[in-house]
Design a protein that fits this description.
Number of strands: 8
CATH architecture: Alpha-Beta Barrel
CATH topology: TIM Barrel
Shape: globular
CATH superfamily: Alanine racemase
Number of helices: 9
Strand order of the largest sheet: 7-6-5-4-3-2-1-8
Distance between the termini: 32 Å
Number of domains: 1
Protein backbone atom coordinates (compact mmCIF):
# COMPACT_ATOMS: atom_id res chain seq x y z
CA UNK A 1 0.00 0.00 0.00
CA UNK A 2 2.67 2.54 0.99
CA UNK A 3 4.82 1.70 -2.00
CA UNK A 4 1.80 2.04 -4.28
CA UNK A 5 1.00 5.43 -2.76
CA UNK A 6 4.57 6.57 -3.33
CA UNK A 7 4.45 5.41 -6.93
CA UNK A 8 1.22 7.36 -7.50
CA UNK A 9 2.87 10.52 -6.17
CA UNK A 10 5.88 10.00 -8.41
CA UNK A 11 3.60 9.47 -11.38
CA UNK A 12 1.80 12.73 -10.62
CA UNK A 13 5.18 14.47 -10.50
CA UNK A 14 6.07 12.97 -13.88
CA UNK A 15 2.81 14.19 -15.38
CA UNK A 16 3.30 17.69 -13.98
CA UNK A 17 6.82 17.75 -15.39
CA UNK A 18 5.47 16.69 -18.78
CA UNK A 19 2.97 19.56 -18.70
CA UNK A 20 5.67 22.09 -17.85
CA UNK A 21 8.44 20.66 -20.03
CA UNK A 22 10.63 19.62 -17.12
CA UNK A 23 12.76 16.58 -16.41
CA UNK A 24 11.18 14.50 -13.59
CA UNK A 25 14.69 13.85 -12.36
CA UNK A 26 14.82 17.49 -11.27
CA UNK A 27 12.13 16.94 -8.61
CA UNK A 28 12.74 15.24 -5.27
CA UNK A 29 9.77 13.55 -3.64
CA UNK A 30 10.31 14.08 0.08
CA UNK A 31 8.24 11.60 2.08
CA UNK A 32 7.01 13.49 5.14
CA UNK A 33 7.05 10.85 7.85
CA UNK A 34 6.23 12.94 10.92
CA UNK A 35 4.15 11.03 13.49
CA UNK A 36 4.45 7.84 11.45
CA UNK A 37 6.16 4.69 12.79
CA UNK A 38 9.63 3.57 11.85
CA UNK A 39 8.09 0.47 10.26
CA UNK A 40 6.39 2.62 7.62
CA UNK A 41 9.63 4.40 6.83
CA UNK A 42 11.45 1.08 6.58
CA UNK A 43 8.81 -0.20 4.16
CA UNK A 44 9.45 2.73 1.83
CA UNK A 45 13.21 2.45 2.33
CA UNK A 46 12.96 -1.16 1.14
CA UNK A 47 11.55 0.03 -2.20
CA UNK A 48 14.23 2.65 -2.68
CA UNK A 49 13.01 5.81 -0.94
CA UNK A 50 15.85 7.58 0.88
CA UNK A 51 14.64 11.13 1.63
CA UNK A 52 12.30 11.67 4.56
CA UNK A 53 11.04 14.85 6.19
CA UNK A 54 10.36 15.37 9.87
CA UNK A 55 8.92 18.27 11.87
CA UNK A 56 10.02 17.43 15.39
CA UNK A 57 13.60 17.05 16.57
CA UNK A 58 12.98 14.34 19.15
CA UNK A 59 11.05 12.24 16.66
CA UNK A 60 13.73 12.61 14.00
CA UNK A 61 16.42 11.68 16.49
CA UNK A 62 14.70 8.46 17.53
CA UNK A 63 14.08 7.43 13.93
CA UNK A 64 17.63 8.27 12.89
CA UNK A 65 18.95 5.97 15.60
CA UNK A 66 16.56 3.13 14.73
CA UNK A 67 16.67 3.14 10.93
CA UNK A 68 19.34 2.64 8.23
CA UNK A 69 22.09 5.21 8.39
CA UNK A 70 22.00 6.13 4.71
CA UNK A 71 18.56 7.71 5.06
CA UNK A 72 18.66 11.41 4.20
CA UNK A 73 16.78 13.30 6.91
CA UNK A 74 15.27 16.71 6.18
CA UNK A 75 14.10 19.03 8.95
CA UNK A 76 11.04 20.78 7.56
CA UNK A 77 9.39 22.04 10.76
CA UNK A 78 10.09 25.13 12.83
CA UNK A 79 13.49 24.67 14.46
CA UNK A 80 14.43 26.22 17.78
CA UNK A 81 18.03 27.32 18.17
CA UNK A 82 18.68 25.13 21.20
CA UNK A 83 17.61 22.01 19.26
CA UNK A 84 20.08 22.38 16.39
CA UNK A 85 22.80 20.48 18.23
CA UNK A 86 20.73 17.30 18.25
CA UNK A 87 20.46 17.03 14.46
CA UNK A 88 23.61 18.82 13.27
CA UNK A 89 25.72 15.64 13.09
CA UNK A 90 23.52 13.99 10.46
CA UNK A 91 20.73 16.17 9.05
CA UNK A 92 20.84 16.40 5.24
CA UNK A 93 19.00 19.69 4.86
CA UNK A 94 17.18 22.19 7.04
CA UNK A 95 14.27 23.68 5.10
CA UNK A 96 13.06 26.11 7.76
CA UNK A 97 15.73 28.75 8.35
CA UNK A 98 13.86 31.97 9.06
CA UNK A 99 16.32 34.14 10.99
CA UNK A 100 19.94 35.11 11.19
CA UNK A 101 20.10 33.86 14.78
CA UNK A 102 19.05 30.37 13.71
CA UNK A 103 21.52 30.41 10.82
CA UNK A 104 24.29 31.43 13.22
CA UNK A 105 23.47 28.51 15.51
CA UNK A 106 23.52 26.09 12.59
CA UNK A 107 26.94 27.47 11.68
CA UNK A 108 28.19 26.94 15.24
CA UNK A 109 26.95 23.35 15.50
CA UNK A 110 28.00 22.40 11.97
CA UNK A 111 31.52 23.65 12.69
CA UNK A 112 31.65 21.50 15.82
CA UNK A 113 30.74 18.48 13.70
CA UNK A 114 33.22 19.36 10.97
CA UNK A 115 30.56 19.45 8.28
CA UNK A 116 28.64 21.86 6.09
CA UNK A 117 24.84 21.81 6.35
CA UNK A 118 22.59 22.64 3.42
CA UNK A 119 19.74 25.01 4.27
CA UNK A 120 16.76 26.70 2.70
CA UNK A 121 15.28 30.03 3.73
CA UNK A 122 11.65 29.68 4.76
CA UNK A 123 9.60 32.48 3.21
CA UNK A 124 6.04 33.24 4.32
CA UNK A 125 4.94 34.27 0.85
CA UNK A 126 1.22 34.41 1.66
CA UNK A 127 1.79 36.40 4.86
CA UNK A 128 -0.18 33.99 7.03
CA UNK A 129 -0.10 34.78 10.75
CA UNK A 130 -0.07 31.08 11.60
CA UNK A 131 3.02 30.31 9.51
CA UNK A 132 6.71 30.81 10.25
CA UNK A 133 9.14 32.30 7.77
CA UNK A 134 10.65 35.60 6.81
CA UNK A 135 8.63 37.90 4.62
CA UNK A 136 9.79 38.14 0.99
CA UNK A 137 11.28 41.60 1.58
CA UNK A 138 13.59 40.23 4.29
CA UNK A 139 14.88 37.28 2.29
CA UNK A 140 17.69 39.17 0.57
CA UNK A 141 19.30 40.31 3.82
CA UNK A 142 19.03 36.85 5.34
CA UNK A 143 20.46 35.24 2.20
CA UNK A 144 23.42 37.64 2.20
CA UNK A 145 24.16 36.78 5.82
CA UNK A 146 23.93 33.03 5.36
CA UNK A 147 26.38 33.24 2.47
CA UNK A 148 29.00 34.56 4.90
CA UNK A 149 28.82 31.39 7.00
CA UNK A 150 31.49 28.83 6.04
CA UNK A 151 29.66 25.77 7.38
CA UNK A 152 26.20 26.62 6.06
CA UNK A 153 25.34 26.25 2.39
CA UNK A 154 22.34 28.19 1.10
CA UNK A 155 20.63 25.99 -1.47
CA UNK A 156 17.32 27.77 -2.02
CA UNK A 157 13.93 28.77 -0.64
CA UNK A 158 10.98 27.03 0.98
CA UNK A 159 7.37 28.03 1.53
CA UNK A 160 4.23 26.47 2.95
CA UNK A 161 1.33 27.72 0.88
CA UNK A 162 -2.17 28.13 2.36
CA UNK A 163 -4.41 25.10 2.54
CA UNK A 164 -6.98 25.64 -0.20
CA UNK A 165 -9.73 23.59 -1.80
CA UNK A 166 -8.51 24.43 -5.29
CA UNK A 167 -4.73 23.97 -5.76
CA UNK A 168 -4.80 26.55 -8.56
CA UNK A 169 -5.29 29.22 -5.91
CA UNK A 170 -1.72 28.61 -4.75
CA UNK A 171 -0.15 29.01 -8.18
CA UNK A 172 0.59 32.74 -7.57
CA UNK A 173 2.32 31.83 -4.28
CA UNK A 174 4.60 29.38 -6.02
CA UNK A 175 5.30 31.81 -8.84
CA UNK A 176 6.27 34.50 -6.37
CA UNK A 177 8.73 32.21 -4.59
CA UNK A 178 10.27 31.17 -7.90
CA UNK A 179 10.63 34.82 -8.96
CA UNK A 180 12.16 35.67 -5.59
CA UNK A 181 14.86 33.03 -6.08
CA UNK A 182 15.54 34.33 -9.59
CA UNK A 183 15.89 37.86 -8.22
CA UNK A 184 18.16 36.81 -5.34
CA UNK A 185 20.38 34.82 -7.69
CA UNK A 186 20.62 37.81 -10.01
CA UNK A 187 21.68 40.06 -7.14
CA UNK A 188 24.28 37.61 -5.86
CA UNK A 189 27.74 38.27 -7.24
CA UNK A 190 29.18 35.01 -5.91
CA UNK A 191 29.22 31.78 -7.87
CA UNK A 192 26.86 29.93 -5.53
CA UNK A 193 23.42 30.37 -7.02
CA UNK A 194 20.48 28.77 -5.25
CA UNK A 195 18.91 25.86 -7.10
CA UNK A 196 16.19 24.40 -4.87
CA UNK A 197 12.59 25.49 -4.40
CA UNK A 198 10.91 23.41 -1.69
CA UNK A 199 7.21 23.98 -2.27
CA UNK A 200 4.10 21.91 -2.69
CA UNK A 201 2.46 19.43 -0.33
CA UNK A 202 -0.15 16.70 -0.66
CA UNK A 203 -2.94 19.03 -1.75
CA UNK A 204 -1.06 21.17 -4.27
CA UNK A 205 2.27 19.60 -5.23
CA UNK A 206 1.37 19.06 -8.89
CA UNK A 207 0.82 22.80 -9.36
CA UNK A 208 4.04 23.49 -7.44
CA UNK A 209 5.99 21.23 -9.80
CA UNK A 210 4.52 23.03 -12.80
CA UNK A 211 5.78 26.27 -11.24
CA UNK A 212 9.32 25.04 -10.68
CA UNK A 213 9.42 23.14 -7.40
CA UNK A 214 12.51 20.96 -6.97
CA UNK A 215 11.27 19.33 -3.78
CA UNK A 216 7.69 18.39 -2.93
CA UNK A 217 6.90 17.55 0.68
CA UNK A 218 4.25 14.84 0.60
CA UNK A 219 2.98 13.07 3.68
CA UNK A 220 -0.73 12.29 3.74
CA UNK A 221 -0.92 10.93 0.19
CA UNK A 222 1.90 8.52 0.99
CA UNK A 223 1.39 7.59 4.64
CA UNK A 224 -2.28 8.37 5.15
CA UNK A 225 -3.92 10.71 7.65
CA UNK A 226 -2.18 11.44 10.96
CA UNK A 227 -3.53 11.17 14.49
CA UNK A 228 -2.78 14.59 15.96
CA UNK A 229 -4.17 13.54 19.33
CA UNK A 230 -0.77 12.10 20.23
CA UNK A 231 1.45 14.78 18.73
CA UNK A 232 5.06 14.44 19.79
CA UNK A 233 6.91 17.48 21.04
CA UNK A 234 10.49 18.34 20.13
CA UNK A 235 13.15 17.99 22.81
Amino acid sequence: MLSENLEKVRKTVENACHVSGRDPGEVLVLAVSKMKPAEDIQALYDVGQRDFGENYVQEMQKKHEALPQDIRWHMIGHLQKNKVKYIAPYVTMIHSVDSGDLAAMIEKEAAKCGRTIDVLIEVNVAGEDTKYGTDPAGAAELAAYIRTLPHVKLRGLMTSAPYVADPEENRPVFRELRQLMIDLNRENDNNDSMDILSMGMSNDFAVAVEEGSACVRVGTLIFGERDYGNKQQSV
